[in-house]
Amino acid sequence: MTPESAEVVIVGGGVMGTSVAYHLAKRGVTDVVLLERESLASGSTSKSAGGIRAQFADELNIRIALRSMAEFQALERVSGIGYERNGYLFLLTQEEEVESFRNALALQHALGVPSELVSPEDVKELIPALETSDLLAATYCPIDGHAAPESVVQAYAGAAAAQGVRILQATALERIAVLGDKIVTIETSAGRIRTDTVICAAGVWSRDVGNLAGLDIPVRGEARWMHFTPEDGGLPEALPLTVDFSTGFYFHREGTGLVFGGREPTIEGVASHGTRRLPVLADLPIQSSWWGFYEMSPDHNAIVGEVSQPRRFLYATGFSGHGFQQAPAVGEHLAELVVGDEPTLDLSPLALERYAGGGERREQFVV
Ligand SMILES: Cc1cc2nc3c(=O)[nH]c(=O)nc-3n(C[C@H](O)[C@H](O)[C@H](O)COP(=O)(O)OP(=O)(O)OC[C@H]3O[C@@H](n4cnc5c(N)ncnc54)[C@H](O)[C@@H]3O)c2cc1C
User: Fold this and answer.
1) Closest ligand 1 atom, CA of 212?
2) pLDDT tens, 154-198?
3) How far is the CA of 204 from the centre of ligand 1 (A)?
4) Count of domains in the chain?
């Protein structure tokens, strides 16, 4: 049943919304309603490859990654989220790529990330089945890895609900009523809730939710496909999440098989890059395929913060392909903004206002 009022309403039951709920509950804020119009994790979260990496080019994303990795480790101990740290391997075939990854390595090292530049011979030793003749170099980071997105959502949602957070599935936000500069009520598909604080964690649909509060959040959907084969082609057990950076083809181990994806909307498109890089892929049966949205921002960096008008409207979207792994640190940050705690990480450079003030900050390493 829809409650009459709530201190905080979260819109979206993906990894971001449930992380915010978890972090609010951890701070004692439990008069919270989370609205999910479908079911938990049904948006981009369940479509994700679950990759978690510290290999970014933007300092803030590296800091977010390190903070988030610590929480994924804690969640793994308590709930078992399938967190595996077999590294990320970026394969580089162009001089400019080597240059920008080399620069990023220096930044990563300054922040304590154990990433390294490796040779094509090292790559061949690590994964003998890869075609490496056109590689100039690669980068490898052993603390990178992946986890199961739905398990993370269940861990967050379960812990939040145990503290009293109400999670309403099949319930959509339909309207936000603002009086002066204050949010006063929201309308859902199941009734009205009095609240003065709304947190938009609606993924690619955040633009629509922002519109309900008179805001323009510049996020757009970009469809990305993934495929699963139940066989692993004899690849090593401890397989890094491997990315052919120039084509976007990537793969990682999933149980007894492999998941792989790329930028192309058809299996033939992805396979043309995939079978060139990983010839054994041509012999493996495809069991399932799916697609979801990357929620793209103009500079490929997250849009996170709180607007001044209306007051108490907070948002987290625009993750451009890396929102799953950023959920721990970003959820923590939004909870800190709600309660007025000193932020653990200064994410103010990611605020929506940057687009009006010429403060765009581009993340180059988008897979
Ligand atoms: C193929 C693919 C691979 C990816 N791989 C990775 C990866 O390896 N690593 C990584 O970090 N990220 C990856 N991503 C990106 C990642 O999945 C997303 O950035 C992340 O899941 C975003 O989470 P979210 O909670 O913000 O959004 P979502 O999971 O989309 O959740 C938003 C929710 O809001 C709900 N909603 C919308 N409007 C309303 C409304 N009006 N009322 C109520 N509910 C509403 C939706 O139903 C949805 O469930 C990948 C994405 C795709 C598609």
Assistant:
1) 41
2) 999 999 999 999 999 999 999 999 999 999 999 999 999 999 999
3) 7
4) 2
